Amino acid sequence: MNRLLRIARREYVAYVRTVGFWLSMIMMPLGFGVASTLPAMMAHNTPVPALAVIDLTGGGYEAVIAADLAKSKGKPPAQLVPLPIAAPADPAQAAKLLRPWLTGDRLLPGKRKLEGVAILHGSGEAVAVDLWKANVLNRDLDRAVRGAVTDELRRKRLAAAGVDAATLRAADALEPKMTAYSAKASGKVALRDRLPGIVGFGCAMLLWSVIMTGAGILLNSVIEEKSSRVLEVLLASASVPEIMFGKILGVAGVTFTVMGVWLSVAATLLVSLAPNIAADVGAVLAGHGLVFYFAFYLVGGYLMYAAIFTAVGAFCETTREAQTLLGPVMLILIIPIVFLTQAIQHPDSPVLAALSWIPPFTPFLMTARVASEPPWWEIAGTGLLMAATVALVVWIAGRAFRAGALSTEKVDFKGLVARLRRAD
Question: Any stretches that span the bilayer, and where are they (predicted)?
């Protein structure tokens, strides 16, 4: 244990002393903050698209679209502007004449670009809309024009059937007063009732981040020490379990230090800005036992993947060689991320329940599903199966680490199996 802790301390100090460690710990929260606020800032500062309407139907749709845009809550999807030319009677001719404004070759007054032109033609209820856009990816113009024209067509149809405008507006305003109740809480559904699923999802994502970060550091550390022959020196003075678990423990300390700082900052901000929500989150973590579930699955999941990455690194001289062995592992790590979003709304889905029994997925999916309070036998069964898998993976990884640490041959799957068999 003394040698194991010395190796763990050596790994921890080696990373904590680097400038990159402190930069990554500081820059990551800043990056998340910028990434979360920048889209809203960009949407707020982006100018409202200029839209022109050519109504060849004579049904007054230009005024309808203008009124519908004026009713938009918040920033409108478009702003109606006058046509820069006299409206032609032919839709194809209109599109051809307005093309220079749409491409930006010619500008509207105020040096403004025309973003879209809606040309309405047809008669009666057979109204067609040709929407010419400068940016084909902007779907806001499509939704704004289609919604306004659809509402007007519906109004005209009902008016022809004898329904007046006041009755139509009153019918549109009708909606039931609906209140959602929780069968478990025996009361109205509030944010606190939804928090267990949200917190479980967050814990699962945090677990995934911890594993990815720690496993990557472990892999690079083992590859670097093998290529520089430091690993051979360590093997001369310590056993394989001491080296492997010492490195895993040291890198775990590095990873948990970073995560602890980030969580402390996030918790401080949450308590300062939203103390009620912070109290609810604390109650959820304690009341639903998420803290214990998270700790159990964090230790098991981290140990499982850390042992795999450490063993892979022992067989590789460079990170390029490691890619050939890490491909299947990375695919396994991606699968739970695909299903995690479903774990919030459908935690008891048969697919999620089945995947939870597969040990590589168990730490992530069970952490996300625990808020739905699955049966105790499912929690116990998946936990025991994961623990047995962790023990098996650690045993295999120890043999692989011993076989690969002193090997200088290129990695191939036949030789890998042979070396595992020869390992003592």
Answer: 12-32, 198-223, 244-270, 290-313, 325-344, 376-397
